[in-house]
Amino acid sequence: MLEIRNLFCGYDSKIILQDINLRIENGELLGIIGPNGSGKTTLLRAITRVLKPERGMILLEGKDIWQMGFRELAKRIAVVPQSFGGGSMSIEEFVLLGRIPHFERFQFLETKKDLEIAKRSMSLTDTLKLKGQLMGEISGGERQLVLIARALAQEPKLLLLDEPTTHLDIAHQVKILDLIKRLNREFGLTVIMVLHDLNLASEYCERLVLIGEGRIHKSGRPEEVLNYQIIEDVYKTVVVVEKNPISSKPYILIVSEEERQKKEKNENKRIDSGLYR
Q: What is the mean pLDDT of the chain?
């Protein structure tokens, strides 16, 4: 589906991503993780042609994305961003924006097919009941579902999501990611999503790409990427990695500074008591 070769990319001649080589297979669900500022969102911007690489190439189904027109690219790739606009638009109007890449020349109004596809996209995301409401009137979790509905209305082959669970409670996080997983499995939609929460990434993604300081630090199954040595090396913080008792996927436990100090103090006491015994 997507191949990235020797990518160097950044802003105002400052290179953020360096020597990125990555291959995403058709139907894969890939998670991109890494610390703040490591280059995760920059990678999505490069894939969608928001940023032009300094060096390297990005191929979509074997074709250089910079040799494709914007309409052609938008028919194949849809993006669910962190932020959104359209506060005064109805949900239905907002979702119908996803049909614009499919408009024929001189087409100004939606066709019956466009309306049917938008309706189906809202049904899949459980937002059809909201279609008459305004974007500015619904909750954060509902807005995220509507953003996904708009992306689905594009009928893409590749769906990109930039931190889709940010600012959502755990119920909405699970709802969003369960939906993404279902779209991937039942409809064969290839998915790349940036996630901050390592436990959510572990639970929902087939493969993870860990970016650290602009380079791919590690790529593989969650159990290959999420061990405490790798996490501590990239994130510079102490963690404990256990197994989720239900799924057996890696589960990361944080360790506060206070608890680390307590542990060190207790260990020092044991050593001292052993010396004077």
A: 87
User: What residue segments make up the domains of the chain, in order of their start?
Assistant: 2-222
Q: What's the confidence (pLDDT) of residue 43?
A: 92
Report the 3 state secondary structure along the chain. Answer: CEEEEEEEEEECCEEEEEEEEEEECCCCEEEEECCCCCCHHHHHHHHCCCCCCCEEEEEECCEEHHHCCHHHHHHHEEEECCCCCCCCCEHHHHHHHHHHHHCCCCCCCCCHHHHHHHHHHHHHCCCHHHCCCEHHHCCHHHHHHHHHHHHHHCCCCEEEEECCCCCCCHHHHHHHHHHHHHHHHHHCCEEEEECCCHHHHHHHCCEEEEEECCEEEEEECHHHHCCHHHHHHHHCCCEEEEECCCCCCEEEEECCHHHHHHHHHHHHHHHHHHHCC
| pTM of structure | 0.85
Homologous superfamily assigned to 2-222: P-loop containing nucleotide triphosphate hydrolases (3.40.50.300)
